[in-house]
What we know:
Layout: E1 3-7, E2 10-13, E3 18-25, E4 34-39, E5 46-51, E6 58-60, E7 68-73, E8 78-83, E9 92-98, E10 114-115, E11 119-124
Amino acid sequence: QVQLVESGGGLVLAGGSLRLSCAASGRSFSRYTTGWFRQASGKEREFVAAITWSDGSTYYADTVKGRFTTSRDNAKNTAYLQMNSLKPEDTAVYFCAAPRMGDYYTTNSDGYPYWGQGTQVTVSS
């Protein structure tokens, strides 16, 4: 079992930046992929980014590529999502997630059984 807690959301003007954190507990966080997803009001949850544990490979949705960066600090059991050049369409609740198996990676939210509570990101124009 793993517990995930996101933080760092808030209200920001378009063009601004935020950094989200995902703190993990309950198992060896460093040996598992961390996925980031978001869900805007009235829309389905969508993949944003992921980082694997074995070699730190990163993956991004086309909508955020070049603007968002995910990283992790295994010593702190924490993953990060640095979001730059934010746009109003980035407004959503952002979640971090972990798979059941270590280095498993997918853009499908069904592949992640463990989720944080989410943090709201609002970008105003």
